Amino acid sequence: MCDLKWKHCACQATANVSDNFYGLPIKIIFLSLLCHKTMSGNDAIVVNELTKKYCGQVVLNAISFSIKVGSVVGLIGPNGAGKSSILRILAGIITGTSGDVLINGNSIAENVMRTKQHVSFMPENNPLPDHLRVGEYLRFRAELKGIPARKIRQSAEKVMRQCDLYYEARYRMIKTLSKGYRQRVGIADAMLGNSEIVILDEPTIGLDPHQIIGVRKIIDMNKGTRTILISSHILSELETVCDNFIIINRGHIVATGTLDELSNNIQEQDTFYAKIGGNRQVIRESFELAGVQIIEIKRSLCDGEYVIKFVATEEAYRFLLSKISGHGELYVKKIGHIEYSLEEIFLNFTRRCRDQDDADNS
Amino acid sequence: MKKFYTLLKYEIYKLMVSPATYIIALIFMLSIGGIFAFLLYDYIKFEQDVPLVQMFYRCFWLPTCIIVPLLSMRSFSEEYKYGTFHSLFSVPISCAEVVLAKFLATYGMFIFLWLCSWSLFLAVGFKSGSIVHEIAFASQFNIGGGLLFIAITGLLFVAIGIFASSLTENQIVSCTLTFFLLLVLFIGGQFFADRSQISNLNLYGTYQESLNIFSQLDNFCNGVFDTRLVVFYLSTCKLTLCFSAAAVQEKIS
Prior knowledge:
The structure holds two protein chains of two kinds.
Chain A: H1 2-22, H2 24-40, E1 43-54, E2 57-68, E3 72-76, H3 83-90, E4 98-103, E5 106-107, H4 112-116, E6 119-122, H5 134-144, H6 149-162, H7 179-191, E7 197-201, H8 209-222, E8 227-231, H9 235-241, E9 244-249, E10 252-257, H10 259-266, E11 271-277, H11 280-289, E12 293-299, E13 306-311, H12 314-325, E14 331-337, H13 342-361
Chain B: H1 2-17, H2 19-45, H3 52-58, H4 61-82, H5 84-88, H6 95-115, H7 118-125, H8 131-138, H9 140-167, H10 171-198, H11 206-211, H12 213-221, H13 227-252
Helix pairs in contact in B: 1-6, 2-4, 3-12, 4-6, 4-9, 4-10, 6-9, 6-13, 7-8, 9-10, 9-12, 9-13
């Protein structure tokens, strides 16, 4: 986001210079060329100050983010946060009220048909026409996506094999398919063709664990070659497949980054975690001696060891480590920085956002 | 253009595989068969000034009011209801292409069903040696004129059906709305034409004549081909389809 802002400023500055020396027409050409080059560089998707209003209600409020080519990004947020609106705008189905979106350097506002050629989209609930067979449907979609006639059969077969549809469901009517198979047909449709960007809205909803692993494999197969944007409420699943995350709440982007970056972001101080066996009193004394502040201490019911959450400086942490490891009555099973799960990160950011809103209202 | 043909092929296929289409066709054949049998019986029993063909096609509004709403009600309403338009519009095709494909598929079916009405006259023609035989074979030219008239006016009727379907996701609402709009067009047009004739108002010239559907039908059945009528129905059809495309665009966003 910072990069984007910087580039925007650079564009503005250059525009002013060119205005002074060469006049307005040259300014426009120069500005558009520079903006195009800098903003689309290594980014598959650039969203700039995008706002969407439905009947006067703001759903997306001037959001900006960018997604690198070949990355797998998870878009998460509570219900009604604006996830589906973002995905539909990126897919070119709906338009934003203001702002711009660049898909592989092409502006959606300028030429939506061109940008649609780069994007495959699987909508939420995966609606499919019931009167077609799986093979027929995929061939129909391939034709609509502009795949050359001689490659249609080959492309459809390829994705059917990838999604385990070829042997079992190729000739079956869509209306007779189970939920899992229908999801697979939707994913096969999204993977069909050579679109560089794949957008999946809730791809694993209603799938059993085996099928979820199947979807994960498909995403892994396309990792690096395609940019994949996934929206899902199954956070553990996203944690496994995604490199980067975008957290959205009430139409605002509240955080972006890798899991580590997000985890570091929510750690206000150096918070550590330890699992130590021994006497409770001895543990407390050792921590106090090292000048470490215990936040929470709990005894594990299964093995009787103590789970401790504490705040310490890097120096105090090292001192504590040497103190405990040299202590005869205590043994350390696990110690280190707290690793937050995506769920904890998500809850933390959305809660923080809600608290801030409440404070503003009061 | 290739994508448009793909869409058109898909829409025709959708109509052909749907059992509802065959039920609509059956309802249509029963209704025109009933009308034809009644008129034929009347024609043989009592002496008539107007030819049988003309009398038959004057009743075209009734089957049209039944089949157009039934054929067109699913076109967009179904897409809205099941959400399939989201995946449809995620590929590089425009609203206009989708509207036109749906319109042409429905219009094609409408024309096909009306062409079947020719079979009624042909069936009667097999009864050789009777008065019926003369009627049937003497009126082939008039049948062509009547069908051409239905083909031209059908452009607007089907476009109205598509427009009503683009407004709502409820098929019953779409069907009722189309039926109501067609009735307004038939009855209102006739009423408007009669009123302006009585009061000698000639403010709207061609429009007034064009709205008098039944007098235009008589002209066509008698071999008078009015190009103004073609222009009128083509332009109103185009306008209605533009409204439909706008309604679809609005519905999506």
